[in-house]
Write a structure and sequence with these properties.
- The complex is a heterodimer of chains A (about 210) and B (about 550).
- Helices cover about 55% and strands about 15% of the residues of chain A.
- With about 210 residues, chain A is of the alpha/beta class.
- Chain A folds into 2 domains: about 130 residues, Rossmann fold (3-Layer(aba) Sandwich), CATH 3.40.50.2300; about 70 residues, Arc Repressor Mutant, subunit A.
- A 6-stranded parallel sheet of chain A has the order 2-1-3-4-5-6, with helices on both faces.
- In chain A, helix 5 links the parallel strand 5 and strand 6.
- Chain A starts with a strand and ends with a helix.
- Chain B is an alpha+beta fold and about 550 residues long.
- Chain B folds into 4 domains: about 210 residues, no CATH class; about 100 residues, no CATH class; about 70 residues; about 120 residues, Heat Shock Protein 90, CATH 3.30.565.
- In chain B, the strands form 2 sheets. Chain B has a 5-stranded mixed sheet. In chain B, strands 1-2 form a two-stranded antiparallel ribbon.
- The longest helix of chain B has about 80 residues.
- Chain B is elongated and about 125 Å long.
- About 5% of the residues of chain B have low confidence.
- Classes of the chains: A alpha/beta (about 210), B alpha+beta (about 550).
- At the A-B interface, helix 1 and helix 5 of A face helix 13 of B.
Chain lengths: ~210, ~550
């Protein structure tokens, strides 16, 4: 799996590169700013770009913009944004074009190497990985929502994990349930929220997020 | 009993009914008689328009009085849209609904208003006369007669005082019921007949006349002109001869000129402000000039002769001169104050910007420094965990050592950042100790001479001074290639002075990054910051701040 990394702090760039290499990824380029990221994506056609949202020269959301620009030119490139803070508005922008895998994670998640590597792989394969913080922000936004109130606490947990982009198997792992039990919860949630069954996990995530963003 | 101001204004409204009643009555009777007389001639159309304009003018004055004195906001009277077609064009204002309402109010004021004005003035005058009776009773030959009783001197007239008070009290109490018909009728008759009062009407309630801006003057001019035209017609039809309408035209012209001048001063304040005048003085002066011209006009119309207006002009000029003198004395103070306000506004905005910039810098430092170190530390630990699970203890040990070094770095950066935000030694030990500690931490040779004995300066002053010293020392180390720096800190009376002198290459830009932020901070505290840095050195940073 071919990866391009964009991160301006050398310390973290090197750390990420080593971590991904160790876990069997082929890091084809590691760059420090948005312009170079676009150029490298065009030239090397990676499966996924792992991008720090805050890059020079403005140190605001240059990373996100550059990644979206790169994907416009090379459709289907998966994007995983990492950041020291999360803002659900950015997640919405990221999800808006719906052409390939997206992820948006706090840099804290990198410490859980196994989960982080899973997330990179999932996004590269066209899936979704949203930070639990982003999902929590979305839940907080819809606190007064009646249909959400009708979910049982367990169902809300499952919905949160669905929104993060996990598969049924992933959810079963996280909650220590059987896959069958998770499937039953998912059916019940989709029914209560009036969401259609989706053929793929990714589409399911999009539907759930669209619902949560109202 | 209502507030004294309220009653006083009501009484003013009532008393105003006396002259206004006469004025409105004569205007309306004249206009309608002329209309009746000319009804079969084309002139009647001009009279219709004159009637409309005069009625509108009356409504304007009345609505301003009602709002200002009775506190009833009837909304500005508006000239309603003209009816279409030839009938509308001929009959003009008479055909529109608002006209008859305004006309009704004018008649109400002319008849009832006049009567109540006479009553009010009589009550006030007799009340005041009774209260003051003891003062002049002795001077009246044969004594003051009060019906059955005659007072010949001060003591005998004393009983009149309470009676006078009673009369005045009754007058005040009557003010409300006597003005009630006017406040009631004004909302029905003077208000805009279309009922949709624009927002400016509400603003007008706070600032009288504001709602009428601009249009009132046009109507005033129109009404005056129409009246003069009608009178000239009458004069011409009556066979010419002595031009008597001039006696109407002169006061109308003077009133219009005063209206125009007051309006102009209100609309274009730069006309008087730029000349260092006040609005009051500008209006006072202008109105005086107009009144003088008016008197001269009367003198001319009366056939010239000896120039009697000279005395009146002299009498009017003296108050203007006194007024101008008072304004001139006050404006020096004002100028000083406004300059001070300019300085404060600029420095306050600068201080807010500088503070904002500082917070952004701190956020950047945290983001790129300690936060990034902690992420890297977490990564190393995570990978070490993986290595242990894969039974590669050597690789794991290496990663753990990296992690510990990272933790130490993160701590150091946090400490530096905290010192950059506010050094603990400054709070605990004061400016002198904090500056010495800065000198110790500097990679350069720094000699400090400090004498800030006595009471500690305010915290904001100490902190600003500390950061000037810190920035100057940092610049000396980073840019000036200096070897030795001399820091002198002393207190001269109420000023705290700092000089940082290095032996570097000079050429520092005083507007550059850190120093310009500090300059704004120092200025906001009414201090000074000067940087002299010729090429080749030395660089001298001099700061002064008020203390105590």
């Amino acid at each position: 799996m071919r990866v391009v990394i964009a991160e301006d702090l050398a310390l973290l760039r090197d750390g990420l590169e080593r971590l991904l290499r160790d876990n069997g990824f082929d890091v084809v380029a590691a760059v420090g700013d948005g312009e170079t990221l676009v150029a490298e994506v065009l030239e090397r056609r990676p499966d996924i770009a792992v991008v720090d949202i805050r890059l020079p020269p403005g140190f605001r959301d240059e990373g996100l913009r550059a990644a979206l620009r790169a994907r416009e030119q090379v459709p289907g490139t998966a994007i995983l944004i990492v950041s020291q803070y999360v803002e659900h508005e950015y997640a919405a922008e990221l999800l808006a074009d719906r052409s390939g895998g997206v992820g948006y994670l706090l840099k804290d998640r990198i410490m859980h190497v196994g989960e982080f590597v899973d997330a990179v792989r999932r996004v590269a394969e066209g899936g979704t990985a949203l930070d639990p913080e982003v999902v929590a922000q979305l839940f907080a936004r819809r606190r007064e929502d009646a249909p959400l109130e009708r979910l049982t606490p367990r169902e809300r947990e499952v919905l949160g994990l669905m929104a993060e982009g996990r598969s049924n198997a992933g959810i079963a792992d996280a909650l220590v349930l059987t896959v069958g039990a998770v499937e039953k919860h998912v059916q019940s949630i989709l029914g209560k929220l009036d969401l259609a069954q989706s053929p793929t996990d990714h589409r399911r995530v999009l539907a759930v997020l669209a619902y949560l963003q109202g | 009993m209502p507030a004294p101001g309220v009653s006083a204004r009501r009484l003013m409204y009532l008393v105003a009914g006396l002259p206004l009643g006469i004025a409105w009555f004569s205007l309306l009777v004249t206009l309608w008689s002329l209309t009746a007389g000319f009804v079969v001639t084309p002139f009647v159309i001009a009279l219709f328009y004159a009637n409309g304009a005069v009625t509108f003018g009356i409504a304007h004055v009345e609505s301003a009085l009602v709002r200002g004195l009775l506190g009833v906001d009837a909304g500005p009277p508006r000239w309603p849209a003209r009816r279409q077609g030839w009938v509308g064009a001929l009959l003009g204002p008479l055909m529109v609904e608002g006209f008859w309402r305004m006309q009704a109010y004018a008649w109400l004021r002319a008849l009832l208003g006049y009567a109540l004005g006479v009553l009010t003035l009589t009550l006030i005058a007799s009340g005041l006369g009774l209260v003051a009776a003891p003062a002049y009773a002795g001077a009246v030959p044969g004594g003051l007669e009060f019906g059955v009783y005659t007072a010949h001197d001060f003591v005998e007239a004393l009983p009149a005082v309470p009676v006078g008070c009673l009369v005045l009290a009754v007058t005040v109490l009557l003010a409300e019921p006597m003005t009630r018909p006017f406040s009631h009728m004004s909302t029905r008759l003077l208000a805009d007949p279309r009922g949709d009062r624009p927002a400016e009407a509400a603003a007008g309630a706070r600032e009288p006349f504001a709602a009428h801006r601009g249009r009132g003057l046009a109507w005033h001019a129109f009404a005056s002109a129409m009246l003069v035209v009608v009178l000239m017609l009458v004069w011409a039809l009556a066979g010419g001869g002595y031009v008597w309408p001039v006696w109407v035209a002169l006061p109308l012209g003077a009133a219009l000129a005063i209206h125009w001048w007051v309006r102009l001063m209100a609309d274009r304040p730069e006309l008087w402000r730029d000349r260092g005048l006040t609005r009051g003085l500008a209006i006072h002066g202008g109105v005086t000039v107009i009144v003088c011209l008016y008197l001269i006009g009367i003198w001319g119309a009366a056939g010239a002769g000896s120039f009697w207006p000279a005395w009146a002009i002299l009498g009017l000029a003296i108050p203007v001169a006194l007024h101008a003198g008072a304004v001139a004395l006050g404006s020096a103070d004002n100028r000083r104050l406004s300059e001070r306000i300019d300085v404060l506004e600029t420095t306050r905005a600068g201080a807010v910007d500088a503070e904002d910039e500082r917070l952004r810098t701190i956020e950047r430092d945290l983001h790129d420094g300690a936060q990034a170190r902690l992420v890297a530390l977490g990564m190393s630990l995570g990978m070490a965990e993986q290595k242990l699970a894969e039974a590669e203890p050597d690789a794991a040990q290496e990663l753990l050592a990296e992690a510990r070094a990272g933790a130490q770095e993160a701590l150091r950066e946090l400490r530096d950042l905290a010192r950059g935000i506010h050094p603990p030694v400054l709070t605990d030990r004061g400016l002198e100790a904090a500056v010495r500690s800065l000198a110790d931490l500097s990679p350069l040779r720094v000699s400090v001479s400090a004498d800030v004995g006595g009471e500690r300066p305010p915290a904001a002053i100490e902190s600003a001074m500390y950061f000037v010293a810190a920035e100057a020392l940092a610049n000396a180390a980073k840019h000036a290639h200096a070897e030795h720096v001399d820091v002198r800190l002393r207190r001269d009376g109420t000023r705290l002075r700092l000089d940082v002198i290095d032996d570097g290459v000079g050429g520092a830009d005083p507007a550059g990054g850190g120093l310009s932020g500090l300059l704004r901070r120092v200025q906001a505290l009414d201090g000074e910051l000067r940087v002299t840095s010729p090429r080749g050195g030395p660089t001298i940073v001099h700061a002064e701040l008020p203390c105590g």
